[in-house]
Amino acid sequence: MKLIYSLQSEWLKTKRSAASWLCLIGGFFIPLIYLLYFLIKHKSIISTGNDGSVWEMHFQMLLRNMKAFLLPMGVIMASSLITQMEYKNNTWKQLCTTPQSMTTIFIAKFMVIVLMTIKFFLFFTIGVLISGYVPCLIVNGELPKESLPYMYLIEENFKVFVLCLPIIAIQYLISLNFKNFLVPVGIGLVGLIGTMIGSSWEKIFISPYAFVFLDAISNPSNIHIYKVSLVHFVIITGISYWLFLTKKEKG
Amino acid sequence: MYSIETNELTHSFSENEKVVNAINLQVPSGSIYGFLGPNGAGKTTTLRLILGLIKKQKGTISILGKTFEEDRLGILNAIGSMIESPSLYGHLTAKENLRILQKIYQCPKGRIDEVLEIVDLTNTGKKKAGKFSLGMKQRLSIAMALLHNPQLLILDEPTNGLDPNGIIEIRELLIKLNREQNVTIVISSHLLSEIEKMVTHIGIINKGVLLFQGSLEELHQKQSLTSSIKFGTNDPEKTKEILKKHELIAVVENNFVVLPIIDNHLISILNKELVDAGIEVYRIEVVKNDLESIFMDLVK
Predict the structure, then answer these.
(1) Roughly what angle, to the nearest 10 degrees, separates helices A150-177 and A71-88?
(2) Best exposed site among A36, B183, B270, B283 by fewest CB in 10 Å?
(3) DSSP labels, A198-215
(4) Which residue of B has its CA nearest to A10?
């Protein structure tokens, strides 16, 4: 029960925060670009004339664009912003003197980042639907005949979410240990760009920033990216937890 | 019974310098304990050690009869604290800041309005805490520390940056809390004058060492012991000679002969002897050292 209260408390902190705005803007950004493109070009997902599922094609098209850079960058920023909120407001000391175990604090804060990422995917999917439905109504005057593939959308979102977990974990670790916001964002950016440059290397999977990107392009090492992604997540989170518990100064 | 008791509490950030050196703090339950010392004396480090914000290196700490190792969450549930500058989420309103803590402490929601009223912040509405003045931030921090009705309140320089009116308001609030709700309060400051009107006990720390600890009365006794007596005469040097016969060591300061406090009987004998020796005595005055100068003497 204590964890739920701590989670509620952590979630309240995200209200009107930069991470919340980033989540909203980032989630709708690519769908909005496509919506404008469809409306300017007088096109819709029906008139693009695909043979397969129009929704699946539309979703994958938007997702591919997002996975290449925007999603990992958004996750880097959001994870860092949420964790750094305590440093920015000088509130670590307040948080660490509340009757919560350090484990509860660690998990609750981590879960908020995870929930924020899920919220990001939710906004993105809503954006996908809007950018699909609205042009159909305006351009074709009708809705697509194909019913919405709910399960497909959930599955695909979940798969990308799993690939994001190592980035969340590494950014959480760095943000917990550095007061300066520029450090986690800088390391994240360098890690991401470095991974992009070395994306053809067969051992690129050692980078926690690689998986979302590898899923968007070709996978040079033919590894099971979901399994390796989860291994990264577990190891990095374990290290992060240990460092958090053994910190000499809390706040 | 002591609400806080430390035994030989020692802490150093580097090998050569002990920031806190074998401190035996004893904060009686129900007291307002003024923890005094100049900037950098070790006050904040001591309070951070007590709250478990710094890993303890040497010594023991007992809070409300328990140690952190025994019951960390139980202790923290009974403490309200404010360490150094206010800890507030600048993008949230006063109520939202309190709501964050209300969720953790699971105290009644109505308590939020109660504490806002106590610190006179009921009309801040949608104004974000980041836009508050320093005084308002300090008061909101105190409201946050009070939210869960703590038995023990630890406030590190809570009047820092407040105007005289704000200092008086905080002082009255703390005295009220102590008297009406029997909350034990530890309040640190580097100015004795700021807290001497509210504290019942005082601990004076400098360079990591506790120089004095006791009740305010004990400090006042120390005050009378360090008082002096001033003789204003037309011949200070001759006066000094006469006093010397009574084995009294006097000094001449600004044409006054100053000596440590003596009893009234001896004063009258000395007066008579001075007059008999043809010296004009135009003033005899007891000079009481104020608490501030005792404090300054201790930390010199």
Answers:
(1) 40
(2) B283
(3) TTTSTTGGGSTTHHHHHH
(4) B100
Determine contact, residues A159/A222, Cβ cutoff 8 Å: no
Closest residue to B76, CB basis, from A9, A88, A97? A97
Does B220 reside within a domain? Answer: no
B58 in the same domain as B182: yes
Band (B300; pLDDT cuts 50, 70, 90): low
Number of inter-chain CB pairs under 8 A, A vs B: 76
Q: Which of A91, A96, A249 sits opposite B89 (nearest CB)?
A: A91
Strand B184-189 versus strand B32-36 pairing type: parallel
ipTM: 0.86
pLDDT 10s digits, B281-298: 999 888 766 666 676 666
The predicted-structure confidence for B186-226, as pLDDT tens digits, reads as follows 999 888 777 888 899 999 998 889 888 998 888 877 766 67
Give me the residues of B, 66-125, that contact A with CB < 8 A: 72-74, 76-77, 79, 81, 83-92, 96, 99-101, 103-106
Tell whether A251 lies on the interface with B, counting CB pairs under 8 A: yes
Q: B52 in a domain, yes or no? A: yes
Range of the domain at B15: 2-215
Last-in-domain residue among B215, B246, B263: B215
**What is the predicted pLDDT for the residue at B289?**
65
Return the bridge partners of B229, or none: B259, B286
Asked if B54 and A249 come within 8 Å (Cβ–Cβ), the reply is yes
Domain encompassing residue A181: 2-6+14-245
CATH number for the domain harbouring residue B148: 3.40.50.300
Name the band, by pLDDT with cuts 50, 70 and 90, for residue B94: very high
B254 CB neighbour count, 10 Å cutoff: 8
B-chain CB neighbours of A100 within 8 Å are 73, 104
